[in-house]
Amino acid sequence: MGNGSSVRNLGQSLARFSRWSTRALTCGSSSVVRSRDGSSDVDYEDHLRRLGTANDRMKQYWKNDGCPKAKLKHFRNLGCLARGTFGIVHKVQHLRTRKEFALKRQFKEILRRKNNQTRPGVERRLQWAAKNRFIVGLEYAFQDSQNLYLVMEYAPYGDLAEAVSRSPLPEKQTRLASAQIVLGLEFLFASGICHRDLKPLNIFIFERGILKIGDFGLAKAMKKGELTHTMLGTERYMAPEMFSSMGYGTAIDLWALGVLIFECLYDENPFTDEQRKQLQCKEPDRKVSPGFPSDVPRDSPNRDFLCGLLELDPKRRLGVGGQDFRALKEHAFFRGISFERVYSHELTINVRVEPVKPKEPTQEDREWPQFDDNYDPEEFPLFD
């Protein structure tokens, strides 16, 4: 499978969760919020109206790129969060503002060897353009002679992967988590962005149980109805159409959402290894269906919702077609959940967690390497 992102195991090195609270959480009474794109305050209804122009705004941000630059010396290294094939993720603090960030440092030499000079620029442009309260924000991007740097919002409580690795989430918490992810995906779809690696590891947990979609290392900008053929991603979340010769579109993210929610609810993948082999063929076995636990009623909203997302035909998948995300949000699975309150962060997941503790930096880590600024701006397209 393609990798694409510099660090694939970020979430595996993050927070250890203690337990999930069952008490309801409210975070204020107003549904009016400040949008990340710096525009005037928008409420949920304005958000829905703005989805119609999200793709135009994304193109504008891509074209008139204004991502702030910085230098490594502007940040203090607070420790290592993760190491991967392509680089390191550090927890850092901006020396002037004192604000904490996650800094992804990608090694140019390894990217050259892997012939992967293009994808970092696409990742950086898409994440900068994807300005939404349910998307991890990119704050700075810069490079020197040896590395590429992405400075992003820091998720102090890690990712969703650790939570589901311990035990299934309570149903109410899963529904609230899913609602936040749906709002993030709704924005990405409206913006013409296919994530291509949606999974618990790439859902990050912020203060007050706010969830955001992150890691755009495999993301792609796609026109409405466009199909692509590149086979990449994380195998257990990949939709069947990715293995066909017909191509695939943004509906693959809805399949991945179905797998993600299934794992949160039932602590297992909806398909066995053998079933996944049957699905990952040019002509998948149409008889394969999700394996629900025996105590899940056949007429339950959970089963109907997940079967809709895990529909083999991408054109019939829940969330695709005329109603798009309205069909998702109005499904009985979300009965009793106000998406307006989810959007305003009045309703979030409830967690009692320990903040992430990065690996203590060595003396070498504390002293940032000094690389010069002499580099070819054309070598890594779109990054500058």
UniProtKB/TrEMBL annotation:
Domain Protein kinase: 75-334
InterPro entries associated with the record: Kinase-like_dom_sf (IPR011009), Prot_kinase_dom (IPR000719), Ser/Thr_kinase_AS (IPR008271), STKc_AGC (IPR045270)
UniProt organism field: Galendromus occidentalis (western predatory mite)
Segments passing through the bilayer: none
Sequence ranges of Basic and acidic residues compositional bias: 355-369
Name of the featured protein: cAMP-dependent protein kinase catalytic subunit gamma-like
Pfam families: Pkinase
Gene3D superfamilies assigned to the protein according to its UniProt record, in alphabetical order: Phosphorylase Kinase, domain 1 (3.30.200.20), Transferase(Phosphotransferase) domain 1 (1.10.510.10)
Keywords: ATP-binding, Kinase, Nucleotide-binding, Serine/threonine-protein kinase, Transferase
